[in-house]
Amino acid sequence: MPFKKARIAIPALIVLAAAAAGGSQLWAEHQAHVTVNETLANLPGGATGRYDDLHYNLFTHTLRLYGLSIARAGQPQIAIRKLVVHHLSGDGSVANPFRSRMINLVGLDLWRGTDHIKIGDGTAKDVAILAPGMPVPAGTPRWLTAPEDGTPIMVGSLTANTISDERGMSIVALSLAGYQSGQLRDISLNQYADKDGNTVQNAAATAVDLDGLDRVFNPARYTPGAETWTAPRPLLGHLEIAGLAAKDAHGDSRFDHLTLDGLTGRPFLAAPEPETVKTAAFARDALEAIGIGNATLVNLTAQDSRTAAIAKIEHISVTGYADGALGRFTIGHVTVQQHDKTTASLGHFELSGLNVTTLLHAPADASMDQMVALAQNGGAKIASFQLTDAAVPLPDGGGTVTLKTLQDSVTYGPSIQTDMSLNGLSIPASATPDLQQLLQPLGVDLLVLSAAERGSYDAAHGDTHIDESKISAEGLGSVSLSGTFTNLPRTMPTSDDYAAALGKTGIGAFHLSFSNETLVQKIIAMLAKEGGKTPADITDSAHAAAAFAAAALVPGQADAGTQISNFIDNPKVLTLTAAPAAPVPLSTFMSPDTLHAGQAALNLTLSAE
């Protein structure tokens, strides 16, 4: 019997519980209507709101609103066709903001002034929002601040699809994760386009300081009393952009891929307005304010519609830049085309170890001479640079100037060690009228130059030691120099004290050589042709002049004239050597009264091989 009664009682209890739950559900839905109605009735700033239908599920804590709209002064602000809020809690205050585990929406329209944005559907998880009228926490980006509509202060994740505005902008998909207090863990978008033809296939960023980026790069944030900081802080951890195309009134540009790591920055001293960013003062400040860990740009193309010129760059990279110090900068394979013809090209350019920090921190009113002097005294340093396969056309179809390689490396220490080389600089004789006038009589149509220099510089004393400095003209000959020079000027040639400083330069021991290939023979042939004589006549005249030239150049060497004559007969190598007991001041050679004494002090000898 007890069991039978129990069997009867259990269904009754279930029915009773269900009835109670149903009553609770009805009461909860009624309260939801009341709460939403009160909220819409008390919107700040004269805003009004309405909805078509509302449902609330007590057991899943899910609120569904249909046809929600908010307007202000007769102008629409928000319209949502369907809004679903899961597990809603909080009262919207700063201490206890509205929170939801998940928000789903369909058909969102947002109006901000003249802007009207549409979102097809979206989902947000782990959201915290301040109620309308609540003060906005510090660190919230201005563009995200909406005290009259409610300000989001935390978003675990958000996805939105089919975004557009009335101006022709569209985004297929947008997602973000980990937003709190102006900081965003990651964000990405797919298929951006606007009415002007600007497009982005996809973009993604991580570790984004939204408020910091806005404070640094938004001119509107440069107001009296605005938040600032003196040392660059992290603004962006990583950025990738693929397939960007941009258009303006003067042409268009595009690239395949951009990556950026470790962007840091501080607010500029002046707002980044169009009229300020063009000034030298802003450029110096910007170089101090912004830092980059790494950046790479792949396949950049820029077209100028005014000239029909197209520039293509396969690769640009920056590694480790901060406060005027650059780790490495490279550009790979550049071409410039006009009317479907390549007009200029560059195979590779690389610069490393650049440091101009001292120049950036120089007084703002420093003159150009002062800046150059500062650079020469260690204010500008470079570890190495390299340039390969450059070609620049001459105007009017006069040929092309080309360069195979140019490179230099510098090692800093008690003395500065340098090693420079230039190979394959090809210059058509028609490059300039003066060059053509010089080379054409020699039968040279193309001048091919190479150069190399190794040496050291003692910055403390201005002393230079040249291991070897050589300039070669292919097929013609070469000039080489080695030696020591003291007290080299460290001021600009245009400065008032340059001449006096140059006069104190000391000439130490040196070797100056000319190695002939065909240049001497070409000169003899040219002089013979121009004078209507034979090469032998020119050679005989040169022998006669050799004695006078030797006496003027090397007065202390009895056989100097013989050495020159031997070189004329068998032009291979002619060398001038100086072996002074001490460096001879250059000023000694600037006056006729001391010229011969200077020559004697140099202890010059001339020899032919």
What does this structure look like?
- Keywords: Signal.
- Residues 1-28 form the signal peptide.
- This is DUF748 domain-containing protein.
- By secondary structure, the chain is an alpha+beta fold.
- It has three domains: 1-195, no CATH class; 226-393, no CATH class; 510-608, no CATH class.
- The chain contains eleven helices and 26 strands.
- It has helices spanning 2-41, 210-217, 280-289, 357-360, 368-379, 433-439, 498-503, 519-531, 535-553, 560-569, 592-602; strands at residues 47-50, 53-57, 62-72, 75-86, 98-112, 115-129, 152-165, 170-180, 183-193, 199-209, 233-248, 251-265, 290-304, 309-322, 325-338, 341-355, 384-393, 400-411, 416-428, 446-458, 463-473, 477-486, 506-516, 573-578, 584-585, 604-608.
- The protein has a 26-stranded antiparallel sheet that branches.
- A hairpin with a 5-residue loop joins β9 (183-193) and β10.
- The protein is elongated, with a radius of gyration of 39 Å.
- Mean pLDDT is 87; it is low at 1-22.
